Amino acid sequence: MRRLAGLLFILASAAFSIAALSFGPAPNSRLLPEPQIASEQNLAVVVNLSNPVQNLSMPELRRIFLGERSHWPNGRRITLVMMESGQPERAVVLRDICQMNETDFNNHFLHGVFTGEVLVSPKTLATPVGVRKFVFNVPGAIGYLRVSDLDPSVKAVRIDERGPEDKGYRLHVPPRTSK
Amino acid sequence: MNGQNKRARRRTLAGPAALLDRVLALASPYNSSLLLLIVFLVVIAVGLFVIRDLHTTNVEAQKMYAGSVLGLRRIGELQYQAQETRRSTFYALTTNDSNLQLEYADQSREADRRVNEGISEYLLQARMPHEIELGKRLQRDWSEYLNVRNEVLASILEGITKEAVNLDLKGGVPAFERVRQDLEEIKRLYDEQASQQLANVAATSRRTIFRLIGVLGITLALASASVWAIQRSKMLGAIQLAKLQMEFVASVSHELRTPLAVISSAADNIADGLVGGKDQLKRYGSAIQNQCRQITELVNQILLFASTKDRKNRYTLRPLQVSRIIDAVLDNTAELVQEIGFVIERRIESGLPCVMGDLSALSQCLQNLIVNAVKYSGESRWIGIHAFVHDSEARSSKEIRITVQDRGMGIDRLEMPHIFEPFYRGAAVTAAQIHGTGLGLSLAKSIAEAMGGTLSVVSELAVGSIFTLHLPIVEKQKSEMASVTSKPDPSIRT
To answer: B105 and A133: CB-CB below 8 Å?
Structure first.
């Protein structure tokens, strides 16, 4: 009899556990943070306000970011501004504009500077604010910023006649991960 | 009489010292308060003057501080921020780290923003054309320097240090030198303004000191003059009193000596058996009696005066009919008036209300006025007594006025304020050798005031005088009680 009661208790406990797992998470599980889901942002290519350029084609942009073009149409020297390695914005530029990975990009510049094929070596800055300030201060600078980091101190150029706010714009950057 | 009067007046007006004494004597009842008031007003005026000057100095000092010291501080701040703009640009040259270079660029731009604010503030404060011109020149030069600075910063950030240095040497140094010179010129301008304003403040301060010394000197002189005048006035008063008392003693002695001489002579004649017959003896007796009455009256008047001065006299006030008072006075003076052949015109308005007073005292008061009228009437030998109701000038009710008028020598205008003073006798009266003690009017005035009334006078030289006794009217019930005990008066009797 005592054995039968013990067996029934074990069966009941097992049934309760199965039911609890089947009908949803435990009450405590609601307190855990849910993973954030945010939409992608466009990545704007920015130049100094004094720069007369309004639009660039993707091939032109590629030449500029690979250091193969040295001056703007107004005669100003081009200064390329990149964010530090590991930043999602840099990754987007390498992938979508330069069509290279990090290693290829670095090798391209090492090789180009050595052979004299590359005319401009990029400046590396840590933050989007630094990029914005650099572009503001240097008339021939070109860099990139998320749309949310834009302000009137810099000018976003159109790429293939599309601005960062337009539909069909080609540069997208994943949202920043919250720490 | 008039000649003597004029001579007496001429004597009193001789010399400026006498004139000053006379003025002081005239103002003697008020001089202390008057002089103190004048000194007080002068001190207030001086105080206001000094306060105004101090205020002006203070305003000048504030203007100097606001205009020059603050201006110099502003220029100092401008110079510092301009240097900071340039210094931060140079700091960017010292590193290859783009992030650090951006920080220095930010610092340089922040400093140049402050410089621009400072220049705008200076232009707002500038009033003179050359100040405005200088401010605009500084603005222009600073803007030119900033253009070079921006190029230098761009070159530094691009990593072309050599180009940055060349740009600065070529354009930055001369542009900044021009800015520095502009700032120096503004500073010099402020220095000049500060020196000018400092000189103004010093001049105002000096002027204030001189004024202060001046007005304090005037105040001191006025205060000394006031003290001197008060002292002199008191001394003059004491001398005047002593003189009056001496005159009074002489006058009383003279008044006593005449009847005493008559009495003595009569007594001698009787004692020597020179008086024979009953009729002659009776005549001598009557003369002695008259002279004794005169002496008694004189002594009574002196005692009465003494008692009023000691405030020992206690009057019994009761409602009195005006006609009764006047009748009593006329009875008392009838003998005197008849002796010298005077005419008294008596006019009493009918239905006059009663007055509150002491019959004996009021009789004495009016009697003194009539005796004076007899003394000073000269050749006219006419006296008018008039009683009537009139609006009171002091109170808002009506009053009884009893006037005693003569057509005699009149009173000098300058002597009018003194005629009610005890022992006072006018110069003309003394010169005319008219006997008297100088107590009659003083006594009459004291009595009038003791009855709640006043005594006033209107007089003109060689025309005559009118003395008016103002008495308050008693309440109706008391008046009716008085009228039951006496008969009505005829309205006019001559």
So the answer is: yes
